[in-house]
Design a protein that fits this description.
782 residues, alpha/beta, 2 domains, 7-stranded mixed β-sheet
């Protein structure tokens, strides 16, 4: 038992009380299946002031049938007064009937947050525009300041008298408000609780450091509305702040250990430190490692309670949420004030079970990485727990819960509904890029995906300059048909062994790895991660129309043989060109989807990116990228000059290995897929010089047309884009690959090598000095 060492370290009871509680606990453990329970809280004997007997909808604790939650009794007179005060101010506001976002900052240190501009920052600008009247914070007023607004103007402060609240511990008093939205806002349809700590923001109109949403209605749609539940939580992540020892398996026990460990620096982390471990032990003895509620693992219901979404529109949900909160508050009075410890026990007490749907089933592989849905006896969804990789520790909470790539978000049908404030344009050519915004967009296949170097040499160097970086990635897992399968190595590309170690990986686990790695970098966050088997372009209307036209004109050919690139010199080349065209279209269709998400994020948050970087999946960064190299130069897009390439580039080509665009021209390349259908491929071919076309036929003979690099130049000419060619040392990257050798080991090599005459990239020394061009390796012996 963990009790003895804990009692020697933290003593908030006298010795006689401790000895008596030891005996009581031993008796409880011996008879833990009985209906009685032994309360350990130092405030366990406080009178229960909530009484719901007079309420039409009675909320009852599942642990004690004599305890209900309402404002009927004399003890709740003061809370009744608060309820009436709130109703008088907010009930008739139509916006607040739709949605209330509330929290509590009780205690001297917390109330200071609300009136300190340095704490709140200016993150809430767009939130104030949308929900200004409907942000409510319950606060104490020890300073006698009488403030009714927070420092940034976003929070309406409701002052409470701490002498009229039942508990000495304000963490417990906070739970009265936190768990009972139906008592204080009975007129509201949707209610969201967020801890006061989540209001903290960096200065200026920068991204929220926790990724907390600014469009709360949209967040409601992405959780409650999407999954059809009554309440939504976020799963507790496996993070150093939540488990102890470091790298421990996520479990109730490791979480309890983390709270105890935190008390060394924060002695007030709980008023029940002596018995937190005992509370965890009681729960463990009750449930053990066995499953309960028809297959739900007890450990699967660990959540972070700092952000809770309630649906109060139906009688069923009001009753469920009321019983849930009443039971939770009852357990808090009985045990420790750490509500995340008692949450699994409350879940176990309810008549719910994991959803039988394939995605939510506990038998589903990698269920710990997925959203979980719990249903009642009629299989109606009641509780949603968002996947742990969405946790705000990883800084993209509001976007992580968005629909998968390609699914339409209902609230985006009319983009103006996202907010009343339009996106703000930055002066992109200022001298200092500090606090700028960059979107990094990567699309391709998992098989060729390079990740580590992008973190090390691209994202981190930008964030060190305090540039905010959002990372968008779309990967397909199916093995693509290679354009040049005559190159021996192309059939042996494999995923990076450091990223994917299992031959049959769980791709939801891979998504979590990507989210966690990015989320641990200050100033970096995930814009979107989409990992799927393949990109569906067959049902895309523009391509369907193009294929129909191709079939009518050349019924014996592959419909993808001539668009967007054309090369019909022989049957084999035509076949591989068809494969190449499908790969090109899938690539740019995925990029366009990611760019659409990025634009939605701009609209939602009310900002504009300064730069958008479009990267291939096989981009390997060999040295640190310095954003000042492009920020201080003229040009609208920046690409490698590649003027020392072997074979040399033609004057009609622009290197397309990487493209960095200022925001003003980013739409052209973010929507490159659609733009390909708008330009004339024949016009592109007809402008080529005789030196290129001497062995080619004109369009009428349909032998050869523009390649992808010629198309890029043609697009920049058509849209009058100012191109700046950069040296390879200024864009220190190469397209590379991980190739499986005959002996099963991995070999990294340069798939396509680009070099510049001026300021070339030095490849002779350093980490990559032994890398070769893939095509120069004798694969018969490797």
């Amino acid at each position: 038992m963990f009790l003895v060492p804990l009692l020697s370290s933290f003593s908030i009871f006298n010795r006689a009380e401790v000895e008596q509680l030891k005996i009581t606990l031993q008796t409880y453990h011996k008879h833990h299946n009985t209906a009685s329970r032994t309360c350990l809280s130092p405030e366990r004997n406080v009178s229960w002031i909530l009484d719901g007997e007079c309420e039409k909808e009675q909320y009852v604790s599942k642990f004690n049938s004599h305890r209900s939650c309402g404002l009927c009794g004399k003890g709740a007179t003061y809370l009744q007064e608060l309820q009436h005060e709130i109703a008088a101010k907010y009930r008739n506001k139509q916006e607040c009937k739709e949605l209330v976002v509330y929290g509590a900052a009780l205690g001297k240190s917390y109330e200071k947050w609300m009136v300190n501009k340095g704490y709140l920052g200016l993150h809430s600008e767009s939130s104030i525009e949308r929900y200004g009247p409907c942000f409510i914070q319950f606060v104490t007023d020890y300073s006698k300041g009488g403030h009714n607004k927070s420092a940034d103007g976003s929070q309406n402060l409701v002052i409470v008298d701490p002498t009229k609240l039942p508990y000495n511990n304000h963490r417990r008093n906070t739970k009265i408000f936190k768990f009972n939205p139906g008592l204080f806002f009975p007129w509201a349809d949707r209610v969201i609780w967020q801890d006061a700590k989540n209001l903290k923001s960096r200065q200026f109109n920068s991204p929220h450091p926790r990724g907390i949403p600014t469009n709360y209605q949209l967040h409601f749609n992405r959780t409650i509305e999407r999954f059809g539940t009554c309440v939504s939580f976020i799963a507790l992540p496996n993070h150093p702040n939540t488990v102890s020892p470091k790298n421990a398996t996520l479990s109730l026990q490791s979480h309890c250990n983390a709270i105890i460990s935190a008390s060394a620096k924060r002695p007030t982390v709980s008023d029940s430190l002596d018995f937190i471990q005992s509370q965890c032990e009681i729960y463990q003895n009750m449930h053990g490692d066995h499953n309960f509620n028809s297959g739900n693992s007890y450990q699967d219901t660990l959540v972070d309670s700092a952000f809770i979404v309630y649906d109060m529109r139906s009688k069923m949900c009001r009753k469920f949420n009321g019983d849930f909160g009443c039971s939770w508050l009852d357990e808090i009075q009985c045990y420790s004030d750490r509500d995340q410890i008692s949450f699994p026990q409350v879940m176990a007490s309810l008549d719910i079970k994991p959803s039988p749907s394939p995605e939510s089933s506990p038998k589903k592989t990698g269920i710990e990485f997925r959203d979980k849905i719990f249903v009642n006896e009629q299989n109606i969804p009641m509780v949603h727990i968002a996947k742990r990789s969405c946790h705000f520790y990883y800084t993209s909470f509001s976007r992580c819960l968005a629909p998968p790539l390609g699914e339409e978000d209902a609230d985006f049908n009319l983009r103006l509904k996202l907010g009343k404030t339009p996106p703000k344009n930055r002066k992109s050519r200022k001298r200092n890029i500090k606090n700028g915004r960059v979107a990094v967009i990567v699309a391709g296949t998992l098989q060729r995906f390079m990740y580590d170097s992008t973190i090390t040499h691209l994202i981190k160097p930008m964030t060190k300059k305090k540039v905010f970086v959002d990372y968008y990635v779309s990967l397909t897992t199916a093995k693509p048909k290679n354009y040049r399968s005559d190159f021996a190595y192309t059939d042996h590309f494999q995923p990076d062994p450091m990223l994917v170690k299992d031959p049959n990986p769980d791709y939801s686990e891979l998504e979590e790895k990507i989210r966690k790695r990015i989320g641990m970098i200050p100033y970096a966050s995930i814009g979107a991660v989409d990992i799927r088997e393949s990109i569906d372009i067959d049902s895309e209307p523009l391509l369907m129309k193009k294929r129909q036209q191709a079939f009518e004109e050349h019924p014996t050919e592959d419909c993808d043989q001539s668009f967007p690139i054309l090369d019909n010199r022989n049957t084999e080349i035509a076949k591989r060109t068809s494969n190449a065209n499908r790969n090109i279209l899938k690539l740019h269709f995925a990029i366009q989807n990611l760019w659409g998400i990025a634009q939605k994020w701009e609209a939602e948050e009310g900002f504009k990116y300064d730069y958008v970087m479009f990267l291939r999946d096989d981009t390997l960064w060999l040295d640190d990228f310095n954003i000042d190299n492009i920020h201080n130069k003229k040009g609208e897009i920046f690409i490698p000059s590649c003027d020392a390439r072997d074979p040399p580039m033609d004057d009609n080509e622009l290197n397309d290995h990487i493209l960095i665009s200022r925001r003003e021209t980013a739409d052209i390349f973010g929507n490159y897929y659609s733009n390909l259908f708008k330009i004339s491929m024949n016009a592109c071919m007809n402008q080529l010089t005789k030196g290129i076309t001497k062995n080619w036929s004109r369009a009428k003979n349909r032998v050869r047309g523009c390649n992808t690099e010629m198309l890029l130049k043609w697009v920049t000419k058509k849209y009058k884009v100012q191109v700046k060619k950069m040296s390879q040392s200024e864009l220190p990257m190469q397209r590379s690959g991980n190739v499986r050798k005959r002996d099963g080991t991995n070999l990294q090599c340069f798939h396509k090598l680009c070099q510049s005459q001026k300021l070339p990239l030095k490849l002779e020394g350093g980490k990559y000095k032994h890398m070769k061009k893939c095509s120069n390796i004798n694969w018969k012996f490797n």
